[in-house]
């Protein structure tokens, strides 16, 4: 699946997007965050406070409990500050 | 009624957008227009950089607009949100609601802004007047509270 990162999540990871191939035991958005966090220091810093990270699957908001099966695009970003 | 939703880097003209809604209509009794501007924060801010999630920004604002249309009998609805570099004094966001009666137009406009703040995928970064790159603007708890009150 394609991963997208925005705002300070993007800056901390150092890239805006990449292809992810998580192992099959990674079933939910929250588990995907934990898996990414274990990759290296940059991801660990981006996701150090995982509870504040907002996520979207295929351009719609989802919660951390949401399964990732079938997702084409998953995005990670801080709370939004538009308007 | 199809809402008008635009995500763009270019400036917009609220008067022109309202005139487009009024044009040729005889059923509208009230138009409410909200414009959000970039503040200079007492001279310390040089610009805001608005990052957005292309595709999702449009989709999410469309979902919020559908919710507004389900709650209030609106005659017209326009939402425009800019992205990119925005200078103090420039306009960032526009919400226009039109209805037969002002109560629906006022309520829907406030609902739309409260929901856009917490659900539309935009992020503001500050560029300071002293030339340094500032911080990402932090989401405010009061914005979450403002959106939450519509669920009661």
Automatic annotation (TrEMBL), chain A:
<protein>
    <submittedName>
        <fullName>Molybdopterin converting factor subunit 1</fullName>
    </submittedName>
</protein>
<dbReference type="Pfam" id="PF02597">
    <property type="entry name" value="ThiS"/>
</dbReference>
<dbReference type="InterPro" id="IPR003749">
    <property type="entry name" value="ThiS/MoaD-like"/>
</dbReference>
<dbReference type="InterPro" id="IPR016155">
    <property type="entry name" value="Mopterin_synth/thiamin_S_b"/>
</dbReference>
<dbReference type="InterPro" id="IPR012675">
    <property type="entry name" value="Beta-grasp_dom_sf"/>
</dbReference>
């Amino acid at each position: 699946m394609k991963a997208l990162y925005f705002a300070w999540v993007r800056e901390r990871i150092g890239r805006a997007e990449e292809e992810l191939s998580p192992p099959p035991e990674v079933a939910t958005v929250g588990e995907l965050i934990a898996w990414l966090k274990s990759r290296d220091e940059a991801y660990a810093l981006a996701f150090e406070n995982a509870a504040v990270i907002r996520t979207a699957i295929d351009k719609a908001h989802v919660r951390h409990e949401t399964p990732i099966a079938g997702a084409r695009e998953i995005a990670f970003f801080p709370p939004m500050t538009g308007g | 009624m199809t809402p008008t939703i635009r995500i763009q880097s270019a400036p917009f003209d609220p008067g022109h957008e309202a005139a487009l809604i009024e044009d040729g209509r005889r059923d509208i009794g009230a138009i409410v227009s909200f414009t959000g501007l970039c503040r200079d924060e007492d001279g310390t801010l040089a610009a805001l950089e608005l990052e957005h999630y292309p595709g999702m920004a449009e989709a999410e604002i469309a979902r919020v607009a559908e919710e507004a249309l389900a709650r209030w009998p609106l005659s017209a609805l326009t939402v425009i949100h800019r992205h990119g570099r925005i200078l103090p004094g420039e306009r960032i966001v526009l919400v226009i609601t039109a209805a037969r009666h002002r109560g629906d137009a006022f309520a829907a406009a406030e609902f739309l802004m409260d929901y856009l703040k917490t659900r539309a995928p935009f992020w503001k970064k500050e560029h300071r007047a002293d030339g340094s790159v500032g911080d990402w603007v932090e989401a405010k708890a009061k914005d979450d509270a403002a959106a939450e009150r519509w669920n009661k």
